[in-house]
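Private note to self, pasted from the team thread so I don't lose it. Backbone tokens:
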């Protein structure tokens, strides 16, 4: 866990989208993107095993190997399957494992089972597990409903995750109920690209004020016009408790 956080806070950049939706902007030159987020102050990154093999030089922040996969080309794009093992990931240098679970779909029973089994494997290896817990599927009319998000986050903790990633509910007060209901650290997802930088930084600040341990974000960082600067701005809020106004100054310098 010490390789993933700084003073108990986490800024993990999620770079697993290439498998799901292809080589989108920001994920073409992986070395360039990883270099930018490292310079910006990220504490960890999430990627599939193949990406860690091709990085040159090797990444020197926390390495979280993602073991879940699905593709937008599939008939069931939200049905995640396990595509690796915690043991082999550890042997090849991973600091932690992550898996993705969508709750509320007709396939969620399989993902719940996978979460429990991978959590057991990680426990045996004394290896941290990040569970990406999303309310997503036919039975979820509003994925940002605080009660639903709190329930989904709790599932991750109940089955053995060391860190839970989930959706921000839109405001600090409602998200505090998610954090309070989850007995392990909670980090927020970034979701689709936001309309402006202040909106993103307000979301990060709101989550931190609610007790979140940090973020695990992808597109709002690697598809930003300046990934290094937006990482630095987010880093200042998470690690230095900067205001949104102060963090915005990073982007204008």
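Design output:
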């Amino acid at each position: 866990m010490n390789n993933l956080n700084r003073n108990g806070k986490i800024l993990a950049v999620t770079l697993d989208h290439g498998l799901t939706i292809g080589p989108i902007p920001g994920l073409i030159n992986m070395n360039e993107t990883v270099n930018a987020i490292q310079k910006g102050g990220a504490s960890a990154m999430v990627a599939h095993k193949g990406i860690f093999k091709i990085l040159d030089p090797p990444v020197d922040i926390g390495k979280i190997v993602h073991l879940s996969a699905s593709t937008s080309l599939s008939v069931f794009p939200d049905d995640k399957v396990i595509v690796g093992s915690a043991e082999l990931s550890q042997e090849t240098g991973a600091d932690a494992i992550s898996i993705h679970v969508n709750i509320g779909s007709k396939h969620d029973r399989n993902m719940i089972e996978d979460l429990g089994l991978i959590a057991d494997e990680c426990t045996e290896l004394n290896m941290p597990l990040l569970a990406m817990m999303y309310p997503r599927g036919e039975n979820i009319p509003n994925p940002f409903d605080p009660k639903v998000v709190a329930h989904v986050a709790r599932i991750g903790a109940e089955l053995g995750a060391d860190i839970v990633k989930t959706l921000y509910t839109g405001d600090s007060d409602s998200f505090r109920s998610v954090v309070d209901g989850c007995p392990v650290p909670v980090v927020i997802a970034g979701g689709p690209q936001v309309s402006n930088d202040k909106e993103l930084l307000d979301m990060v600040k709101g989550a931190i004020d609610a007790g979140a341990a940090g973020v695990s974000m992808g597109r709002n960082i690697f598809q930003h016009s300046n990934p290094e600067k937006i990482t630095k701005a987010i880093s200042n809020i998470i690690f230095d408790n900067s205001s949104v106004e102060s963090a915005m100054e990073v982007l204008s310098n």
